[in-house]
Here is the input.
Amino acid sequence: MQYSFLGDSGVSISRLSFGAMTFGTQEMVPGVMNVIDEKTADTMVSCAIEAGVNLFDTADLYTGGQSEEILGKVLQGRRQEVLISTKCGFPGSENINNRGLSYSHILNSIDASLRRLNTDYIDLFFMHIPDPYTPVEETLRALESATKAGKIRYSGLSNYPAWQVQKAISHQKSNGLSTIKMTQMYYSLLGRDLDQEFVPMLTDSGTGLMVWSPLASGYLTGKYTDTGAKGRRESFEFPPVDTELGDRVVHTLKEIAAGKNANPAQIALAWLLTRNYISSILVGASNLDQLKSNLGAVDIELSSEEVSVLDDMTRQADSYPAWMLPMGQHEVVARNI
Here is the structure.
């Protein structure tokens, strides 16, 4: 296993982390059923720990809370060996206040997650999605309160634009508060929107990045290419994918994989592992074999030429003002930096 850091906290985390979104035996989202019970989850978690994974991610939203409950049960007896991250923000019921990132809802959500996880503290607590109705200062007040109470150790933001992450960090630093350590964002060969604004912000602020859906919801496994298969994406086409680009990328992944006794998913994950701004990559699975295969990505080395081919295929065109930034460079100065 490879390891990185949880932002600038000094805490070491595995570069492949385990996503427990598939835990549970009911509807995860409308039209998508989860079928992983406690026994299967225990086997998968044990496999991940044996491979060196030390970070396990879930959310109050996943399978109506079952994901947190099952993860908490299978980690009993080895809680001190691992880190747990979870989230709040999406609606949890028809109660109008059981959603968002208000001071009240965050603290209630943390207490509920602690009960479901059967733990005294949460290592990393994410705001799952921005709340357009609550000032960020109010959200940060709740996180600071929970941190001082020992209920959470570090906090993070998920699915936030770069300017909002930086605004939160600036407010925290200006007011002597604990700072955001990690972001959790979608990033893959088929979704490189973070490159222009978000990645430079991470590098400048020292904030970490945990990637969700690194295989574009299974598209980069190749199971949707040239087969007509729909799978989960038939009822849950998320995140969105440019299928024409996706099919070209999958064919290239297959070509690279053929020379390494690997599969397309492993090559896609190995490409992500070449990005030094990525702290950890969430790998989920619907069965043990799939999990073992994904974890095997850490053993694959891509050549600089293979990385460049994938980079060039998937690089997005610069948007304004990104395409103007090179104009500020000076040839002589740049040569001597």
Observations:
- Residues 243-258 form the longest helix (16 residues).
- The chain has a mean pLDDT of 94.
